[in-house]
Design goal:
By secondary structure, the chain is α/β, with parallel strands linked by helices. It has 20 helices and 15 strands. It is elongated and about 110 Å long. It binds uracil.
Length: 520
C-alpha cells in the first residue's frame, strides 16, 4: 500500500504537524503508512506520484475512532514541549519520529514507563541538541556595525551558522536583548532584521505588539556578513586581558564553546596563542611577589581630625559615608552597607551595642531587628524616649556566616573591634553624650578599653571615653537567647541594670557621676 504523503508548509511547521498528526491518528493511520515532507525535504518522487491525497485535503476516507480506539487525544504536556523543540531539529525524519511516538503513546500503554525506548531516547537526544543550539546561538552571536547611508540608523549585522532550524525560535531573545538596536542576523537558511520603532512612536497597542519591525528574508552567505572593525580590536584586547592562564582548561572550554563555532567568534583566534603562553605565565604568577589586593571601592578620604569638625550633624553624615567605604577590616566588603548610629546630639545617654544584625544591615539603621525591638520595650518601660537618646554599635558593619541563603550573625573579633574604634571615637566626640550604656561585652571592651566580664560587672559604672561613666549590662540578644524558664527574672534584672542610668535621663547626672558603684 502506498504511504500517505503529508506536506508541511515549512521546516518548522509545528501547527501544521499538530493538525495533520491529530487527523491521522483519529483516522487510525499507522506511522509506517505516512511520509512527511517539507519544502527542504520532499518525499521521494515515487511516492509523490502514487500517494493518495492527505487526509486533511478531504478526499481520503477517514476512519473515525471507534469504541476500541481513543476518542480524545490526551498526551502528557511534556510531550508537547518535546515536540515543539524536536520540530526544530535538522533531521528530516523528525516528523516521522514524532508521529510514531504519538501513535505509540496512544496505542502502547507501556511506552510511558519505558524511558529507554529507542524512539524516546532519540527524541530526547534531538531535544537536547536543539536546546544546545539555541543556547549557543544566544551566546555566540557577535554583531558588527556596518556603514549605513546618511540619515539611516546604524545597523549591526551578525553571521551565525545554527545546526538546526532555530532562527525563528531564538529571535524573540534578540529582540528583547537588543530592542533599541537596529540589527540583522544572517544564517545560511534565513536572515532576520530588526528595526526598532522611533523614539517618538505612539504607545504599543496590544500585549503582543512589538516595539519595532521584524522582517525575515532568505538565507545568506558568510561573505555578505561584515568584516572585523575597530570595536572588535578593543574586544580582543579586553578578552586577552581577562584571560586567566592559571585557570585554563582547554577541554572545558571546548565543551562550553565547541570548535565548530570558533570560525565565527573573533576571540577564538586568541585561544591558541594564549593557551601556548599559559604555563609560562602561570609559573611567573606563582613566583611573583604577592601584591596587595586592589580595593573594590575607591579608597576613602583621610579622616578629618576631631577638633576640625564643627558642624556635628554634617560631620556625622560625612563620617558615616567614610565608614561605609572603610576596608580596614574585611567586614565592609561583605556587608550591605555601614550602619552608623542615630539619635539625638548631646543626649543624656549613648547606648552602644555590638554590631548591626541582619535586619540592621539591610535597613542601614541600628537596633531595628529582634534585639532592637526588645530594647525598645525596655526603653518604654523605663520611660526613656528613644529619640532623646543616641543608639550605636562598637562595630559598624554586619559580620555573618552564610548558611545556605541565611546570614547567621558572627561575633566580631578583636581585630574588627579595634579597626572600628576610630569611628566610635569620632562619633562620641561629635555626639557628646553625658554617659554610656554598654550593651554586652564587645561594647564594654570598646568603651572601657579592656575586657569586661559582663556577668560579674553588670550594673556597675566604669570609666569610658573622655572619663565619662559607662554602665555595664547585658546585650538584649542575651535575653532573647536565655533560658525561657528564667525569662521574667532576666528581664527584671536587666531593667534594674538599665534603671541605674535613669538619673541621666532625668538630668541628675552630677550625682551619678560622683557616686559610681565600682571602679573609678
Ligand atoms: N545588635 C546590636 O548590637 N546592634 C544592633 O544594631 C542590632 C543588634
Amino acid at each position: 500500500m502506498s504511504p500517505r504523503v503529508i506536506t508541511l508548509e515549512s521546516e518548522i511547521d509545528w501547527p501544521g504537524f499538530r493538525r495533520e498528526a491529530r487527523t491521522l491518528l483519529a483516522s487510525l493511520v499507522p506511522p509506517d503508512e505516512v511520509v512527511w515532507q517539507t519544502p527542504g525535504h520532499p518525499a521521494p518522487e515515487l511516492w509523490q506520484a502514487e500517494a493518495p491525497p492527505s487526509p486533511v485535503a478531504g478526499s481520503a476516507p477517514m476512519r473515525r475512532l471507534g469504541g476500541s480506539g481513543p476518542s480524545r487525544l490526551v498526551v502528557p504536556p511534556a510531550f508537547i514541549t518535546l515536540c515543539e523543540k524536536v520540530v526544530l531539529h535538522q533531521d528530516p525524519q523528525r516528523f516521522a519520529l514524532l508521529y510514531r511516538l504519538l501513535w505509540r503513546l496512544v496505542h502502547e500503554r507501556g511506552l510511558r514507563q519505558d524511558p529507554l525506548d529507542p524512539d524516546r531516547l532519540r527524541a530526547r537526544q534531538m531535544l537536547q541538541s536543539v536546546r544546545r543550539d539555541l543556547h549557543k546561538m544566544k551566546a555566540f552571536v557577535r554583531f558588527r556595525p556596518v556603514g549605513q547611508p546618511e540619515g539611516e540608523p546604524p545597523l549591526s549585522v551578525a553571521w551565525f551558522e545554527p545546526e538546526h532550524h532555530i532562527v525563528e525560535a531564538v529571535v524573540p531573545f534578540f529582540v528583547r536583548r537588543f530592542t533599541q538596536m537596529h540589527w540583522a542576523i544572517l544564517t545560511p537558511e534565513c536572515s532576520v532584521r530588526w528595526m526598532p520603532a522611533p523614539a517618538n512612536s505612539p504607545p504599543l497597542a496590544g500585549e503582543d505588539a512589538l516595539p519595532g519591525e521584524l522582517e525575515f528574508g532568505p538565507g545568506a552567505s558568510k561573505e555578505q556578513a561584515p568584516a572585523p572593525d575597530q570595536g572588535e580590536a578593543l574586544w580582543l584586547t579586553y578578552y586577552a586581558h581577562i584571560f586567566n592562564p592559571a585557570r585554563l582548561k582547554l577541554s572545558m572550554m571546548a565543551k562550553e564553546m565547541p570548535r565548530k563555532y570558533w570560525a565565527n567568534l573573533p576571540e577564538a583566534q586568541l585561544i591558541a596563542p594564549l593557551a601556548a603562553q599559559a604555563s609560562e605565565r602561570t609559573t611567573r604568577m606563582v613566583q611573583a611577589v604577592p601584591a596587595a589586593p586592589r580595593r573594590r571601592i575607591p579608597a576613602r578620604a583621610p579622616l578629618p581630625p576631631v577638633d576640625s569638625m564643627h558642624d556635628p550633624e554634617a560631620s556625622l553624615a560625612a563620617l558615616a559615608k567614610s565608614a561605609d567605604r572603610c576596608r580596614d577590616c574585611p567586614l565592609g566588603e561583605h556587608a550591605t552597607q555601614v550602619v552608623f548610629g542615630e539619635g539625638a546630639l548631646q543626649p543624656p545617654l549613648m547606648l552602644v551595642g555590638e554590631q548591626p544584625g541582619d535586619q540592621e544591615d539591610l535597613a542601614g539603621q541600628p537596633f531595628v531587628g529582634p534585639a532592637g525591638r526588645l530594647l525598645d520595650r525596655a526603653l518604654q518601660e523605663l520611660g526613656w524616649p528613644r529619640d532623646a537618646l543616641y543608639l550605636t554599635n562598637a562595630v559598624k558593619h554586619f559580620k555573618f556566616e552564610l548558611r545556605g541563603t541565611r546570614r547567621i550573625h558572627k561575633s566580631p573579633g578583636q581585630r574588627e573591634v579595634l579597626a572600628c574604634q576610630q569611628w566610635l571615637e569620632r562619633e562620641v566626640a561629635l555626639v557628646r553624650p553625658k554617659a554610656f550604656v554598654a550593651l554586652g561585652a564587645t561594647a564594654a571592651r570598646a568603651l572601657v578599653g579592656r575586657a569586661v566580664p559582663v556577668m560579674s560587672e553588670r550594673g556597675q559604672w566604669l570609666t569610658g571615653p573622655a572619663g565619662l561613666p559607662v554602665l555595664i549590662t547585658l546585650h538584649p540578644s542575651a535575653l532573647l537567647r536565655g533560658d525561657p524558664a528564667e525569662k521574667d527574672s532576666a528581664w527584671r534584672a536587666w531593667l534594674d541594670d538599665l534603671a541605674l542610668a535613669s538619673r541621666y535621663i532625668r538630668g541628675e547626672e552630677e550625682g551619678a557621676l560622683s557616686q559610681p558603684r565600682a571602679e573609678a
